Amino acid sequence: MLDALPIPYVLKKQRSIALGLWLLGLSRLGFGQAGPASPWVSDALPRLAPPASLTQGVWLKGDLHVHSRHSTESTNNSVGKILAFSQSVGMDYLAITDHDNHVDGDVAHHTWADPEFTSPSVLLLYAAEWTTTRGHGNAFSAQPYDHRRLYQVRDQRDVVVGAVKRQLGVHLSANHPSGKDHFGYSYDMLESLEVWNSVIWAKNANALMIWDDMLSSGRKLTGRGGSDAHHGRPDTPAQATANSVQATANYVGTPTTWVFATARTTQAVVDALTNGRVSVSANPFAPRVELSADLNQDGRLDMMMGDNVAATGRPVRFRVQLAGKMAPDATYRVAVIKNGGAFDTLQLSGRHPVGEFTDTPAATGRTYYRVQVEGPATPYPQVPESMALSSPMVGLSNPLYFNFDPNF
Predict the structure, then answer these.
(1) Which of 26, 53, 97, 274 is the S-S candidate for 129 at Cβ 3.0 to 4.6 Å?
(2) Distance separating alpha carbons of residues 253 and 65, to the nearest angstrom
(3) At residue 161, what are phi and psi to the nearest 5 degrees?
(4) For residue 65, how far is the Cα from the chain centroid?
(5) What is the mean pLDDT of residues 77-101?
(6) Cβ(180)–Cβ(304) below 8 Å
(7) What 3-state DSSP class applies to 397?
(8) Can you spell out the DSSP letters for 29-68?
(9) DSSP string, 333-374
(10) What is the mean pLDDT of the chain?
(11) What percentage of the chain carries pLDDT values higher than 70?
(12) What residues does each domain of the chain span?
């Protein structure tokens, strides 16, 4: 019994017990024992599904953030004009994302019901810009959905919004996360993030930082682009507005988002966007960057952008490839980003530029790699002023993931 012992001994014993309990608490938090260096890293990683085929698919290009006349601040930009232009520059898919608050959330009877909302060659996503006092996001779907339900809960708690979003089955993406109307809701309800908004590349530096923060936290969020174009070229001088000049610099395809889809369907586009098999280029004619990896260095590629595998603790050979039309005699600078920090720099040139680097992803804990490409601007004659604003940025990839929890 402690009561029968001398006072100094009792105090010493109580301090010893308190210290022991404190150390036990630290041990349970992961301190003072062998195991993951971070309390956010799980000891037991769920079994990861093997990556899908790297060859059975098709690269499709499009724009995921465009406004038509159904957004009230848009000018000279009918749905028909947007689609005709998109077809002329070879776009495969398009998301016309009009502001839902301009039609009280009822985009189904405005943008989607527009007689011009049809195309023989461009896949049309059902989409809208969720426009709220807490920020903006785009909703994407392969089929019509009741967007008004999402609009009606815009001022409610994140858990309510998230529940409605899941019931609707839409892909939700944060728009211009570092801009004035940044996304002010939980990022846990998102599938993607607009890391490249409009033709002015320099304005996206903070968006990339936010993306890297989200990736570093364990969120597997696809990075995408969006021109956010609002204004078309006037048909007559009398229709010109102060904003008409924007159409010569920022229009459909500045930037262009590429998805590696399993088929040429709207559902395959949304699935690829969700899965992260995505890269972004400055315009429809700029080189597309592809990042892949040979896990056991047997000369055969095993994973590509968006794929998530368990690290083995052995070195991995990574490949960076540029596809499409290259500028004559151009050299492209590839910055390799690992876990949010600069890791390596590659210089690529030639008609089919390819570069490689090797690294060992940590056996425990998360690791991700992505790349950014700079080089000479690619001409976009249909939007002639865009080159000066996007240069020197050519493109960026989505990450390759190691040991990311798919249930996060």
Answers:
(1) 97
(2) 9
(3) -60, -45
(4) 13
(5) 98
(6) no
(7) strand
(8) HT-SSSS-SSTTS-SSPPPPPPP--SSS-EEEEEEEEE--
(9) EEEEEETTEEEEEEEEESSS-EEEEEE---SSS-EEEEEEEE
(10) 90
(11) 89
(12) 58-402
List pLDDT tens digits, range 124-178: 999 999 999 999 999 999 999 999 999 999 999 999 999 999 999 999 999 999 8
Residue 46's pLDDT is what?
82
Confidence of residue 43 (pLDDT cuts 50, 70, 90): low
The dihedral formed by the CA atoms of 259, 265, 267 and 271, expressed in degrees to the nearest 10? -20
Instruction: Considering the domain delimited by 58-402, tell me its CATH architecture.
Output: Alpha-Beta Barrel (3.20)
Give the number of residues written for the chain.
Answer: 408
- 401 touches 309 (CB < 8 A): yes
In angstroms, the CA 176 to CA 149 distance is 23
Region 181-209: what's the mean pLDDT?
94
Quote the pLDDT of residue 179: 78
Identify whether the C-beta of residue 276 lies closer than 8 Å to the C-beta of residue 268. Answer: no
- Residue 265 scores a pLDDT above 60: yes
CA 211 → CA 32, 171, 205, 325, 398, distances in Å?
Answer: 32, 17, 10, 29, 11
Q: Which run of H or E residues covers position 290?
A: strand 288-294
Q: Phi and psi for 374 in degrees, rounded to 5? A: -120, 150
Strands 93-96, 123-124: pairing is parallel
Q: What is the CB-side half-sphere exposure of residue 364 using CA atoms within 13 A?
A: 11
pLDDT, average across residues 223-249: 96
Q: Compute the distance between CA of residue 56 and CA of residue 36 in angstroms, rounded to an integer.
A: 37
Residue 17 is inside which H or E element, if any?
Answer: helix 7-29
Question: Token pair 């996503």 is at which residue?
Answer: 125
Give the residue ranges of DSSP H helices in 134-286.
Answer: 147-152, 158-168, 205-216, 266-275
Q: What is the DSSP letter of 127?
A: E
Residue 184 CB-half CA count within 13 A: 13
Gap between the Cα atoms of 239 and 248, Å rounded: 15
Distances from the Cα of 34 to the Cα of 38, 39, 45, 360, angstroms:
11, 12, 17, 21
pLDDT band at 21 (very low <50, low <70, confident <90, very high): very low
What's the token pair of residue 91?
């776009």
Answer yes or no: is pLDDT of 8 > 50: no
Q: Give dist(CA 193, CA 260) in Å, integer.
A: 17
391 falls in which pLDDT band (50, 70, 90)?
confident
d(CA 340, CA 92): 31
